[in-house]
Amino acid sequence: MKIETKVEKFNEPLYLESGRLLEKFEIIYETYGELNEDKSNVIVICHALSGSHHAAGRYADEAKPGWWDKFIGDGKAIDTTKYFVICSNNIGSSYGSTNPMSIDPSTKKEYRLKFPVLAISDIVKAQMKLYKRLGISNAVAVIGGSMGGMQALCYAIEYPTFAKEIIALATTAYTRPWAIAFNKIGIEAIRHDPIFKNGNYAKDDLKALGLPGLAIGRMAGLICYLSPNLFNKKFGRDYASTDGLYELFGRFEVEKYLEYNAYSFPKYFDPLSYLYICKTMNIFDAGRNKDKIEDSFDKVQANLHLIAFSDDMLFFPEEMEEIRDIMVKLGRENQVTYKLIQSQSGHDSFLVEVEKFENHVREILKDK
Ligand SMILES: CC(=O)SCCNC(=O)CCNC(=O)[C@H](O)C(C)(C)COP(=O)(O)OP(=O)(O)OC[C@H]1O[C@@H](n2cnc3c(N)ncnc32)[C@H](O)[C@@H]1OP(=O)(O)O
Ligand SMILES: N[C@@H](CCO)C(=O)O
Hints:
binds acetyl coenzyme *A, Rossmann fold, two-stranded antiparallel ribbon, cytoplasm, Rna Polymerase Sigma Factor, Chain: A, alpha/beta, 8-stranded mixed beta sheet, acyltransferase, binds L-homoserine, 12 helices, 368 residues, AB_hydrolase_1
């Protein structure tokens, strides 16, 4: 599979939902496969909170491949021998697209806390500018999970003729207090971390010390991304063999797991990006600026495919069923499908249990 990483720079303003703007911006993205002559074989992949444009394939120096490598590749459900797949890094995220640590052209300094709050619609608007630059005016499908699913819904509502198929996994039409509450742990922990210095942290401090506040936020995140059953199966009440049972800070395996994954997170993810992305997810509401959410979904022209996971404790299956019910209420039952996957990995099942939904996606994409 051919992987290419590219950057597009836009010396034009991006007008944001908030009324603010980014004077200029850039997007880093990866593509897989070949664009056909009439540019009609595009599939757009949207990533979640800590994901990146590196969705598939493996570079020579990498221990692990891209985050959806099981799903995207030659002969895989998103078949790169057939489709030209694009995954761009969301603006706001710290993997290379414009983000809070980018230079603000008006001050020539990093934006940091002066970066504007972004909405999902801003991220999608920026991506649409990328496709226009590439001469791409429509896609076979837009596919994303979690925050990527929010983007997929946004495409369906705000760019109704862009994609024929919208596949949204493990997501919601509007973020509920339960999810906002989990994010709050991270937001508070980061803000009160002395290394954070109200966003003016020294980059070297971060490299040397990590940011414990971000690690605590990730720990809260990991709990709601996984599930009680997964924890029971994975760890049981096993105790770390290196630790003493009567040592105060001796750890159960589950604690060791959380520590490992949480404290490694600040090594590759920026705390300001984390704060801004949490805000973007928290304020997502597909019904914003409409009298009722039905008015938003009434605009959808694509086929909308919803894939929920039975043990998702961040965006519960009921939240996806609600979208299905709205479409049915609107008389669009022929335009919506809903599939509930019996999952065992919680919200992150969309990342790890690909074998349970890949055939469903193959079926959706068949002959398209
Ligand atoms: C679109 C996107 O969202 S992309 C972003 C996806 N990435 C993330 O969410 C980042 C966090 N990663 C994870 O939570 C997981 O890797 C998942 C959910 C993506 C995948 O889960 P799994 O494949 O089941 O991996 P698992 O949870 O077993 O292991 C994750 C890590 O914990 C380690 N680990 C597992 N058990 C233990 C334990 N008892 N103690 C300490 N560490 C442990 C593993 O060795 C692995 O380490 P590594 O990343 O250095 O290889
Ligand atoms: N675990 C994924 C999904 C969170 O919604 C991430 O970190 O992006």
